[in-house]
Amino acid sequence: MCKKLHASVKNFDGDKSVSTLSNLNTRTKIIASIAIFSALYTIMRLIPTIPMMGIAGAFSLSDILAPIYGVLLGPYVGGLSVFLGTFLAMAMGKPVTFMFLDFLPATINAIALGFLIKRKWGPVILLNAVLLLIFFLNPLTSLFIGPFPFAWVHILAFILLLSPLSRKAVDWIETLNPGEVTKGLGIIAFIGTMMQHLTGNLLFEVILGQINGVISVDAYPGIWSGIFLVYPWERLALVVFAVIVGTPLIRVLKKSLFVDHNFDSN
């Protein structure tokens, strides 16, 4: 008995040891991942960062998690974790801004990056193109601020998505090398974050301006002018923090038995 116990302990401590998580089947891992990551998202969602322009409210610290969830958990588990975390935060007192559609921007970010990490570029390109088109066609959109296109950063992100660099970014992430993951995550997090911002802009126009009239139509040109000066730096900060937090998490959890990057393989 002692010899068997010693052998078991030795096997547990060895390089090829199997943690208790290895005994969990894929379905159990998925449920556990959704529970843990949606709870984490809820907590981060309740922590405000910078104020929104044009309305009372603030962005949340959870914005840095959406691209990380997409890379770690895939489009479906990652997106569902963001979705549930958003509604749990509402239940815990986070104000509702967009008629309970507040989950959409970050969920789209997570889903888009989940597809990218699985090398499914088609749905992401189509979704990004549709978001850009709808935003350009909305009468409340200021297409230009002076001589400059309002959405110049969004267009840059879309071009980056279409370029071979987005494919290369996925290759870099899969190496799990710290420097390569940093580069790769920075690129695709930038793409996802700009898609998230586009979605938020559309909700800002459609929900607050065209449906419930919280913001006067005449106020939008001035609001967009102010946002134009701020949003590139705001989005850059989100990408930087997502990379700082996400790089070590991806390297550790992609290797672990808990986060299975093939959750969404079907």
Quick take:
The protein is mainly α. It has helices spanning 2-13, 26-45, 65-91, 104-117, 121-137, 152-162, 164-175, 178-211, 220-253; strands at 48-51, 58-60, 144-145, 148-149.
- The domain count comes to 1
Work out the number of β strands. 4
The arrangement of helices and strands along the chain is: HHEEHHHEEHHHH
User: What structural class do helix, strand and pairing data support?
Assistant: mainly alpha
Short key terms for the protein model shown above:
Arp2/3 complex 21 kDa subunit ARPC3, mainly alpha, globular, 4% strand, 266 residues, two-stranded antiparallel sheet, single chain
What would you say this structure looks like, in words?
This protein has 266 residues and is mostly helical. The chain has one domain (24-253): Orthogonal Bundle (Arp2/3 complex 21 kDa subunit ARPC3), CATH 1.10.1760. It is built from nine helices and four strands; from the N terminus they run H-H-E-E-H-H-H-E-E-H-H-H-H. It has helices spanning 2-13, 26-45, 65-91, 104-117, 121-137, 152-162, 164-175, 178-211, 220-253, and strands at residues 48-51, 58-60, 144-145, 148-149. Strand 1 (48-51) and strand 2 (58-60) form a beta hairpin. The longest helix is centred in the last third of the chain and has 34 residues, at 178-211. The chain is globular, with a radius of gyration of 21 Å. The termini are far apart. 38% of the residues are buried. Residues 1-22 have low confidence and may be disordered.
